[in-house]
Amino acid sequence: MPDSLPLAAPASPASAPQPVRFRGGGFTVRRHPLAALAAFAILVGVWEGASRLGLASPLFLPPPSAVGAALAGMVADGSLWLNLKASLMRIGVGWTLGTLGGMLVGFAMGIGSLARAVGVPLVSAFFPIPKIALLPLFILWFGIGEPSKFATIGFGVFFPTVIATYSAIDAVPRNLIRMAQSFGLPWRSILRSIVLPGALPGILAGFRITASIALILVVAAEMIGAEYGIGAFVLMAGNLMQTDTLLAGVLVLSLMGLTIGTVLSVLERRLLKWR
Amino acid sequence: MRLLVSNLTHRYEDLTVLEGIDLDLAEGEILAVIGPSGCGKSTLLGIAGGIVAPTAGRVTMEGPVPDGCLNPITFIFQDFALLPWRSVEDNVALVLEHHPLPETERRQRVETGLRRMGLWEFRRALPKQLSGGMRQRVGIARALAVRPAVLLLDEPLSALDAQTRELLMDDFLDLWRRERTTALYVTHNLDEALRLADRIAVLSRRPGRIREIVTVEEPRERRQEPSAQAHLAEVRDRLWHLMKAEAQMADREIARA
User: Which residues pair with B30 in a beta bridge?
Assistant: First the structure.
């Protein structure tokens, strides 16, 4: 045994070749195409297994097979289409109204200093209000029927669309506008050929957010006052303790969200293929 | 066409960027403007092109507008300023869209510009599919499509690698020989200025004033020849002598800010 331990490993002779240690790993995103599917299958499997083994009460957390059966029943008795149709119509009308109005105001604020000076404080004041809190007021104004639900969804969609639109216009590179001005392009051509297409990525990103808001608001509005609609359906199933039907309704909502997201992704891919 | 810049001063709020600038570009002349960073070179170009309003002074054009000229004073930009969502040919066509031209002429102008710049095969490509040099060629083709009388070039080669810069300078000179367009060429690169310009105006640090205008006596077509190098080196030394102290002081001012 040596008298004392060396403090450090002996240095290699200067002439000995040493491999350069690789230090560049990690921090890169790799594709795992089956991982999501596998995780989903495991989750459903564990859930089903837990129910069958009696670890979860089928009354409070029915197994996926029961949820699937309830969904099949909804398809068979026509209640799925009846409720889905009502919700889609409300989302469609409310979202379209809110989006058109929001884009119009957002454009005005994006290109006009006066509109911006007036609009920014108003938008800042109204944007944080939870829009569902206004539904009782809208019911008083427009009645319990469809217009109050359209107004709630439209109002909820309007402000994020305004913000997305004017921010998107702000993000249009100013060098492109200067270029167009230097070639004498008229104001309307600059708007049509540069501002609108340049703002499109930001506007479409806003659509993604407002579609989710519309989905949340339609469910909330239908829970407060509607005979049909997925929100009303889920609420009624909850009241009757039909948790399998309730979860089937939630599944439909999830699929609606996924479908809307997919449609927007396709739209983005088609309209923004230049990116 | 002659371009006259008279007693030009420009301020951004309290900051004077340009002061008392006088320039006289003869028809067919290439005048390069060099100077340290922040001396107002690009502002000068913006004012000359009518996209920045000067605080004082004026810019005038003299002489007949060439046949078919749609935009007498035309820019070529440092960052190319191409619309990323439009194809190469649509980028060139953009600047013709608001002019009442017959469709055949419109197409012919686009095609001529793109063919001259060797981009006809790439007409359907998007800007993202092109190299930096090709993108700048699209910018030049776009400028050619309006048959300008005066070209304003804002550091058009500074975003490109050395090899592409050389090739584009050749292209630019070929074009100039054919069109003899008056050009105001802003650059920070002395070699570009020496290769292309008839005269080189040196701006001081902010506020930019003209320190001196140096004439490059050597004929443009001989500037690549070995026999011309001694004279060009002499001019280069003189320009560098004029610029060096200004550039150092401008750097110190930027560091202090």
Answer: B183
Q: pTM value? A: 0.85
- Read off the pLDDT of each residue in A159-164 and give the average, rounded to a whole number: 96
Q: Give the per-residue SS3 of A7-62.
A: CCCCCCCCCCCCCCCCCCCCCCCCCCCCHHHHHHHHHHHHHHHHHHCCCCCCCCCC
Using the Cβ of A93 and the Cβ atoms of chain B, whether some distance falls under 8 Å is answered with no
Q: What is the pLDDT of residue B243?
A: 85
Distances (CA, A) of A153 to A126, A216, A218: 14, 9, 7
Cis peptide before A201 (omega within 30 of 0): no
Cβ distance A183 to B83 less than 8 Å, yes or no, reads no
ipTM of the complex: 0.92
Q: pLDDT at position B244, please?
A: 84
Say how many residues make up chain B.
Answer: 257
Q: How far apart are CA A73 and CA A76, in angstroms?
A: 5
Residue B83: which of A184, A186, A194 has the nearest Cβ?
A194
C-alpha closest to that of B27 among B68, B82, B66, B69:
B66
Q: Which residues contact B181 (CB under 8 A, 6 or more apart)?
A: B28, B148, B149, B150, B151, B175
Residues A103-115 pLDDT 10s: 999 999 999 999 9
- Mean pLDDT computed over B190-205: 94
pLDDT in the model for residue A1: 45
From CA B83, how far away is CA B63, in angstroms rounded?
33
> Is A176 an 8 Å CB contact of chain B?
yes
Largest CA distance in chain B: 57
Cα separation, B112 vs A236, whole angstroms = 70
Separation in Å, CA A11 to CA A4, A5, B26: 18, 15, 72
Reported residue count of chain A is 275
